[in-house]
Amino acid sequence: MESIAHGVENREWQSQMYQEAVAQFDRVANLINLDHNIWERLRYPQRSIVVTFPYRKDEYSAVETLFGYRVQHLLTMGPTKGGIRFAPDVNLGEVAALAMLMTWKTSIVGLPFGGAKGGVRVNPRELSLPELQRVTRRFTAEIINFIGPNKDIPAPDMGTDEQTMAWIMDTYSQQVGHSEPAVVTGKPPALGGSVARREATGRGLVSLLPSAASHTGLRLADARVIVQGFGNVGRYAAIAAAELGCRVVAVSDVHGAVYDPKGLELGKVVAWVDEHGYLDDYPDAEHVSNRDMLELPCEILIPAAIAGVIDVDNADKVQARIIAEGANGPTTMEADAVLADKGVFMIPDVLANSGGVTVSYFEWVQDLQNYFWSEGETVARLREIMNRAFDDVLSISIKEDVDMRTAALIKGIRRVAEAKLVRGVYP
Ligand code: NAD
Fold first, then answer.
1. pLDDT, tens only, 171-193
2. Cα–Cα distances in Å, from 23 out to 5, 26, 32?
3. By CB neighbour count within 10 A (0-12 exposed, 13-18 middle, 19+ buried), where does 297 fall?
């Protein structure tokens, strides 16, 4: 451990986030006695591409230079996979940390990918649509030799969407001389995007609840569920939980939460949000703050908004028996320990929210084969893959007497390590 522990400081990827990602990896590597050569190798991203490039603003004579990044953490398992974000503070350290986390996430669910992440340091809200298009196309051109269906497959992330993916796909296709939908996922359906992609993360998460409930001895019928965040993940998680027979008692958005201990009428809540944008003034429920909602009585809590909401100050007051993390990193490390002491069963983010990347994998497979599945087939395969991963993680957790988060990382890291060992070192 001594020779490995000093390696992160003063590297090009140095950042708080990168240090935390490596610390988490080191903890598990130490626990499983990971081969030291592989341990050292996995602490660094395999490829880090930094580009600077110009784009022309709408005012024709104004040209601005932007910074862009693409980090591929691991090329051992197949092509790399991960989002591209447009945000004013994107940097190499952040993207490198997220690329490493994508390696573990794809490995935990058994997908044939390594992790990647990318971004452009720009505020997309300050750009017009034509400007956004020019930025996207020029950034794609700058990294074009490093992406491709067999190399690295971007997807949407913060500040990017289906339209961004369509522009990347078009730019790439123009350069290679034929249409290549498999170069990105999260595309519009007209270009070969997958059905059920939008619902995938929420639905995938909820598909793990029956197993989690049976393991913890919880009766799912009428179990009270609280969902924080009513976006892509939270909305569909709430709908799927209600379909399972659970009673969804509270949901929230950035402004606050609505609560009805008898169970919310979800159809009405969805219609209200579609019409008004937010839950403000929703009539048939009590209004509480996002912070207070986490402490309301419930059996299942699904934090599906932002990071760090369950912390050392409120962890002890959380009443849920099961927490399924829809958001990335909603529970702080200190809170994790408090919840574990209380016997709360945790389905960690790397497993609980892996439905998104799993359906992205399906999109890639379908594009490569030019053969498209129905929604029923897609959802059934999503459930199968996620539940298999859940069973594996639970069995590691029981056999090796570790919490579910550690067990998930053990599964992800072991699979990667095995592949690296048998591939050997070139030359
Ligand atoms: P989204 O933007 O569609 O929805 C976010 C929701 O959270 C909205 O209802 C918003 O009002 C609410 N929100 C925002 N800030 C909040 C705050 N400070 N407090 C409470 N609520 C707040 O985003 P999403 O795609 O649903 O993603 C939610 C989380 O899940 C993020 O952490 C994201 O990284 C993670 N995630 C998403 C996917 C996916 O497929 N969409 C996959 C894996 C992980």
1. 999 999 999 999 999 999 999 99
2. 9, 5, 14
3. exposed
Q: How far apart are CA 55 and CA 344, in angstroms?
A: 50
Question: Which residues, 6+ apart, have CB-to-CB distance to 9 below 8 Å?
Answer: none
Catalytic residue among 57, 81, 105, 117: 117
| Cβ pair 105, 115 in contact under 8 A | yes
DSSP 33-72: T--HHHHHHHTS-SEEEEEEEEEE-SSTT-EEEEEEEEEE
Helix (H) or strand (E) holding 159: none
Ligand 1 centre to CA of 313 (Å) is 22
Q: What 3-state class would DSSP assign to 333?
A: helix
Beta carbons within 10 angstroms of residue 59's beta carbon: 7
Please say if 117 is a catalytic residue. yes
Q: What is the DSSP string of 109-133?
A: TT-S-EEEEEEEES-GGGS-HHHHH
Residue closest via CA to ligand 1's atom 30 equals: 327
CB 270, CB 236: distance < 8 Å? no
Confidence (pTM): 0.95
Report whether 98 contacts 117 (CB < 8 A).
Answer: yes
d(CA 281, ligand 1 centre) in Å? 21
* Pairing, β 63-72 against β 47-56: antiparallel
Residue nearest (by alpha carbon) to ligand 1 atom 20: 254
Encode pLDDT of 337-369 as tens digits: 999 999 999 999 999 999 999 999 999 999 999
